[in-house]
Design a protein that fits this description.
The structure holds two protein chains of two kinds. Chain A is an all-beta fold. Chain A contains no helices and 19 strands. In chain A, the strands form four sheets. In chain A, strands 1, 2, 5, 7, 9 and 10 form a six-stranded mixed sheet that branches. A five-stranded mixed sheet of chain A has the order 14-15-11-19-17, with no helix packed on it. In chain A, a hairpin with a 2-residue loop joins β14 and β15. By secondary structure, chain B is of the alpha/beta class. Chain B has a four-stranded parallel sheet with strand order 5-8-9-10. In chain B, β6 and β7 form a beta hairpin. In chain B, α3 crosses α4. The two termini of chain B are about 20 Å apart. The model of chain B has no long low-confidence stretch (mean pLDDT about 90). The chains are: A mainly beta, B alpha/beta. Chains A and B meet through β3 and β12 of A and α2 of B.
């Protein structure tokens, strides 16, 4: 989870002039300089919270909040992308891959790449999909107690138990693990972290959770299971 | 306590940091680094004092279309007119859902339509709260002044009749409550038309708001649990009449 204020870090190259709208283009590569397969770029307009602060009692500005402009583009085999007809504004530019091991330039950071689009076309500095380490969490669920979400945007069911693992870094950055397979009584989740990260396993569940040594793993709070991102890590948990 | 509005018009699709108001991933109780289940603690305090813990929520703002009565489906499958409300629900659902800005939406007539949780075949780009709140709030508070904008999120165009837009919004609100199994909830329009010619709104728009509501499914099926609370800002002299709520409270 990116619970971090968006901050600005931008460098622009002015290429051509076209009043009102512009083309945003650039390149994407991984940290070895290669072109990632099936990667894409999304730009999203940053819309300020106008005239508001945490102590205001109600609206100060009755204008409905504007919907931010957003657009996506595929990255071609040369590692380049181009997004036409982008209105004037400030944008976050994020690259995404389809590999579990590569993470976006917009994840695990509060320093997003942003660009200001004014009246000229914009070339964004290269976006890097970084190679991380994969934490695999195998959960033994002998009673089959865990109810697994069947759709991405559901709500908690009226009955049944839940188990959602993730990791949380010392700075509070949280990333949920996703279920990748179920075999027998084992459910396997994975999450990718930067190689420089140190995280704690975080379990949200209404079940009793223990580690491989039989020690209780607390829920709804960071556990004492610490993982360093220098290498891939396998973790075994049990629920009952 | 009918409602405790923890944060005015929260916007969790664009400002995910606001989720710290529910689960603080930075600060421990009593200070220092750590985590705090803020909503859980507030609910406990409410219960301790005999108040409804599930009346604690945050208000959201509706999304205004630039074409009369236009609506579309959001990434959640609910109406995009209520995107912020769907995102609030998706946030509190923890691992059952996602929040943040969707991947690949279509910006159509001022609304964020469709999109997905992430690129096809790739990891999600939307995010999840570390914890799940299995019981959702019992009040849904949306601030809405039905109108048609001039496009691009601009101000309301008071020359365009808002009746049909209001009907669409309120009927979509009812559909949302129905689909999400929240028909027992209070539907609170915590800020709505003031019936005064102030801040770009007109008395005609207030009439259109009410007429649109009366023609909607929210009125048809949920009127007894619906509240429309007019907005008034007494720091602006335009609002001539001070609304007496219940003496000795005069504003």
């Amino acid at each position: 989870m990116t619970i971090a204020l968006r901050q600005v870090a931008c460098t622009l190259l002015v290429v051509a002039t076209s009043y009102g709208q512009a083309t945003v283009s650039g390149a994407v590569h991984d940290d070895s300089g290669g072109v990632p397969n099936a990667s894409s770029v999304q730009i999203q307009q940053i819309v300020p919270l106008k005239n508001r602060n945490l102590v205001s009692i109600g609206d100060v500005d009755k204008t409905p909040p504007p919907a931010p402009f957003a657009a996506t583009a595929s990255v071609d085999q040369k590692g380049t992308y181009s997004i036409p007809n982008v209105p004037v504004g400030t944008y976050v530019v994020c690259a995404y891959g389809t590999s579990q091991r590569l993470f976006s330039n917009c994840l695990w950071t509060s320093q997003y790449s942003t660009v200001s689009v004014e009246s000229a076309n914009v070339t964004v500095p290269p976006l890097v999909l970084s190679t991380g380490s994969v934490i695999t969490i195998a959960v033994n669920d002998p009673a089959g107690a865990i109810v697994v979400p069947t759709q991405p945007f559901g709500t908690p069911p009226a009955s049944g138990h839940y188990f959602f693992p993730g990791v949380i870094a010392e700075n509070g950055y949280y990333s949920s693990a996703r279920l990748v397979s179920q075999s027998g009584t084992t459910k396997t989740y994975v999450v990718t972290i930067p190689k420089t990260a140190i995280v704690r396993v975080f379990v949200d569940s209404d079940l009793a959770v223990t580690d491989a040594g039989g020690n209780t793993v607390p829920t709804r709070t960071p556990s004492s299971l610490i993982v360093q991102g220098t290498a891939d890590t396998n973790i075994s948990l049990n629920v009952r | 306590m009918a409602e405790y509005d923890l944060e005015n018009e929260i916007n969790l699709d664009q400002f995910t940091v606001s989720a710290r108001l529910f689960y603080d991933n930075i600060h421990a109780v009593g200070g220092g680094s750590g985590t705090t289940d803020v909503l859980g603690q507030l609910r406990s305090l409410a219960s301790l004092h005999g108040l409804n813990p599930y009346a604690i929520t945050t208000s959201t703002s509706w999304s205004a279309p630039s074409v009369s009565a236009y609506h579309c489906g959001s990434v959640y499958g609910d109406s995009a007119l209520l995107l912020n409300q769907s995102t609030l629900l998706g946030t509190l659902a923890g691992g059952w859902s996602y929040f943040g800005f969707p991947y690949g939406p279509s910006l159509t007539n001022g609304l964020v339509c469709g999109g997905s949780v992430g690129p096809p075949g790739g990891p999600p780009t939307m995010i999840q709260l570390p914890v799940t709140y299995t019981t959702q709030p019992t009040v849904n508070d949306i601030h809405v002044v039905p109108c048609v904008t001039s496009g691009g999120g601009g101000p309301c165009n008071s020359s365009i009749d808002a009746t049909a837009t209001a009907t669409t919004f309120y009927s979509d609100f009812w559909s949302y409550l129905s689909y999400r199994s929240m028909t027992g909830n209070v539907a609170m329009m915590g800020e709505t038309s003031s019936n005064q010619n102030c801040e770009g709104e007109t008395q005609a728009m207030a009439t259109q708001n009410v007429n649109g509501y009366l023609a909607s499914n929210l009125y048809l099926y949920h009127a007894s649990e619906t509240t429309l609370r007019p907005w008034e800002n007494d720091t602006i002299s335009c609002y001539a009449a001070r609304v007496i709520i219940n003496p000795p409270y005069t504003r």
